[in-house]
Specification:
This protein is of the alpha+beta class and 177 residues long. The protein is 26% helix and 33% strand. It contains four helices and ten strands; from the N terminus they run H-E-H-H-E-E-E-E-E-H-E-E-E-E. A hairpin with a 2-residue loop joins strand 2 (45-55) and strand 3. The longest helix is centred in the first third of the chain and has 19 residues, at 2-20. The chain starts with a helix and ends with a strand.
């Protein structure tokens, strides 16, 4: 009982300090939670959790099968959010008042390396801090081609993601549940 009371007191103290310093407590969400209602998080700073998928073309936080997919028209988007590492990119939709914390990336990479060595083959869950962006109106971003086909223009390489996270820092890396 005393442990629970102490925990609550510490939580309340941390919450009050964050309010006094003008900081807000960020929502911690998964890729699937964002896919279910991306406009709820558009333009907001969040803690985003997911598995990472990376190529030479960029990085994405991904999830397996989400209970509620993100659908635009008849297009079902992949469960992925592009990780935008450049807060000054001219294509960002919202103003950004932070720079990317490269030291956080180095710490996270070191942690991931240790976890991969110790738990070879296990999936990792990454948590990023950043500003989420998605489109409020997808109609102007439906490209129509001369052969009659069409596709929506999203975010990241090949415009395949329905949202992007303008990354401020890598918060954490841990084993996926």
């Amino acid at each position: 009982m005393m442990h629970n009371t102490l925990g609550r007191e510490i939580f309340v103290a941390c919450w009050m300090i964050s309010l006094a310093c003008g900081q807000t407590i960020l929502a911690k969400v998964t890729v699937c939670e964002v896919m279910a209602d991306p406009l709820k998080y558009d333009g907001k700073m969040i803690l985003l959790q997911g598995e990472i998928s990376a190529t030479d073309e960029g990085g994405w936080l991904i999830a397996g099968a989400c209970p509620i997919p993100f659908v635009t028209g008849d297009h079902v988007w992949p469960n992925s959010i592009f990780l935008q590492g450049d807060p000054t990119d001219k294509h960002n939709l919202h103003p950004v008042a932070f720079a990317f914390d490269y030291a956080s990336e180095q710490r996270a990479s070191a942690t991931a390396k240790r976890l991969n060595q110790k738990y070879s083959g296990k999936k990792l869950r990454w948590t990023y801090v950043g500003l989420l962006e998605t489109r409020r109106d997808w109609a102007p971003f439906l490209a129509r081609y001369p052969n009659g086909s069409s596709r929506y223009i999203g975010f990241g390489h090949l415009s395949e993601a329905p949202a992007q996270l303008i990354v401020k820092a890598v918060q954490d890396v841990s084993l996926a549940p």
